[in-house]
Amino acid sequence: MGKGKNSQKRNEQDTGRKREETEIQAKEDAHLEEYGQLTLDRNKGSRRIHLITIIGEVEGHENLSGSSKTTKYDHILPQLAQIEDDESVEGLLVLLNTSGGDVDAGLAIAEMIASLSIPTVSLVLGGSHSIGVPLAVCTDYSFIVPSGTMMVHPVRMNGMVIGTAQTYEYFEMIQDRILTFVSGHADIAYDQLKGLMHNTRMLARDLGTVLVGKEAVDAGLINEVGGIKEALARLYQMIDRKSLGGGKN
């Protein structure tokens, strides 16, 4: 009788454990589908890494059409605050494939990531254009795949624009915020970046510069050409160094 009770108890424990694992997996799947986020913790060192994806257009205060693939900054910011507050999260990996979007929203996300106390790494996949540039360089270390692209161009504005000196001064102020942030978080000078932004020789219908893979590294925007293997290896290294008291980088 005692053996039967013990066996029944073990079965109940196993069933409860499987149910809990299934619920956790379901929550992670729903979180990934809704926000493009999940926690990576099955690596060799069991390091807990939070993954955030910045895909499509960065959405600001106005909702874009339902058919547009967007990243909502009002979803990302609370998650970043939660990551900073969660002592179990050891690192952040940011995957980017974005056409740009709202300047204020993009800079808000970039500033938030840059202020995290945990090691952070970004990986540009496909493209990281316009406001995607600050988002790519805001981490402690950055990668771009060989075919990845980055487009640097002047600020554009939708809707009615009043042709006054104050309007152009406002545009200059917005561009200065972007140039200052990027030059402060990447190995590129303010004036050099401004030159790329106002380049007239590359784009037929616009100003700006498109950099592909190694060109972004050579320009000083991105640290290294690499993929997910290299990005995770670097993040593991940074986490291990920090745990030994050596800082994030």
Number of strands: 9
| CA-based shape | elongated
Mean pLDDT: 83
Order of helices and strands: HEEEHEHEHEEHHEHEH
What's the gyration radius in Å?
22 Å
What structural class should be given to the helix and strand makeup?
Answer: alpha/beta
Organism: Candidatus Enterocloster faecavium
Keywords: Hydrolase, Protease
InterPro entries: ClpP/crotonase-like_dom_sf (IPR029045), ClpP/TepA (IPR023562)
Pfam families: CLP_protease
Set down the secondary structure blueprint.
Layout: H1 2-35, E1 37-40, E2 49-59, E3 70-72, H2 73-85, E4 91-101, H3 103-114, E5 120-128, H4 132-137, E6 141-144, E7 149-152, H5 165-185, H6 190-197, E8 209-212, H7 214-218, E9 224-225, H8 228-243
Helix pairs in contact: 2-3
Pfam families: CLP_protease (PF00574)
Keywords: Hydrolase, Protease
Biased composition (Basic and acidic residues): 9-30
Summary tags:
seven-stranded mixed β-sheet; 8 helices; ATP-dependent Clp protease proteolytic subunit; elongated; single chain; 249 residues; two-stranded antiparallel sheet; alpha/beta
Walk me through the structure.
Helix content is about 45%, strand content about 20%. Helix 3 links the parallel strand 4 (about 90-100) and strand 5 (about 120-130). The chain has about 250 residues and is α/β, with parallel strands linked by helices. The chain has helices at about 1-35, 75-85, 105-115, 130-135, 165-185, 190-195, 215-220, 230-245, and strands at about 35-40, 50-60, 70, 90-100, 120-130, 140-145, 150, 210, 225. The N and C termini lie far apart (about 60 Å). The chain contains 8 helices and 9 strands. Helix 2 (about 75-85) runs parallel beside helix 3 (about 105-115). The strands form 2 sheets. Strands 1, 2, 3, 4, 5, 6 and 9 form a 7-stranded mixed beta sheet that branches. The protein has a two-stranded antiparallel sheet with strand order 7-8.
